[in-house]
Amino acid sequence: MNLVFDRVSISIRHNSKFSFDDIESVLGPLFASYYGTERLRSIISSVDHVWCVYDKKINQYIACGLVQPHSKKNVLYIKLFGVEKSSQGQGIGTRLLKAIRKWGRKQSYTAIILHTQTNNNQAIGLYEKVGFRKQYLFKDFFRPPGLSSSIQIPEQDAFQMILYL
To answer: Cα–Cα distance between 136 and 165 in angstroms, integer?
Structure first.
């Protein structure tokens, strides 16, 4: 699927032959400090659907969403979603989420879920704008594996958010 929007230089691509470098150029700066390069690559290779936004003017990807079917029947899970910092606030994330939503409906999925840090107000605002709603609060969801529970770290709790299709 290749959708071109009113901003002529932008196209949304689904399951194209993306390289790890293409996806990492977007998601690495956003998530590598938490996951590390090897774990990030493992996450990228583990999903069934990769969605990326390509900007023809600058000849690079500027947003990506990693999506897979959830263990619950007919539900999609957005495992990672990010827009390059220099492209945030321009509607890119909204367009990408709407494309994923539209595709999910056509594929007969009933909902999309994701997790986001409870203090990530910018992401929560984006998800709510597209129609996601907070469903559950998970304590310590983002605690790095192997880290002692006696060590206090910020940003470890998550909201599970859901969008019914």
So the answer is: 18
Q: Is the dihedral of CA 27, 32, 34, 39 positive or negative?
A: positive
Domains of the chain, earliest start first: 2-164 (3.40.630.30)
Number of residues that this document lists for the chain: 165
Write the pLDDT tens digit of every residue in 83-114. Answer: 999 999 999 999 999 999 999 999 999 999 99
Output the pTM of the full model.
0.87
**Radius of gyration of the chain from its Cα atoms, rounded to whole angstroms:** 16
E strand residue ranges, 1-74: 2-4, 10-14, 49-55, 60-69
Residues 6+ positions from 101 with CB-CB distance below 8 Å: 112, 130, 131, 163, 165
Q: In this structure, how many other beta carbons lie within 10 angstroms of the beta carbon of residue 113?
A: 17
Bridge partners (DSSP) of residue 66 are 50, 80
pLDDT for 108-136, tens place per residue? 999 999 999 999 999 999 999 999 999 99
Contact 78, 99 (CB under 8 A): no
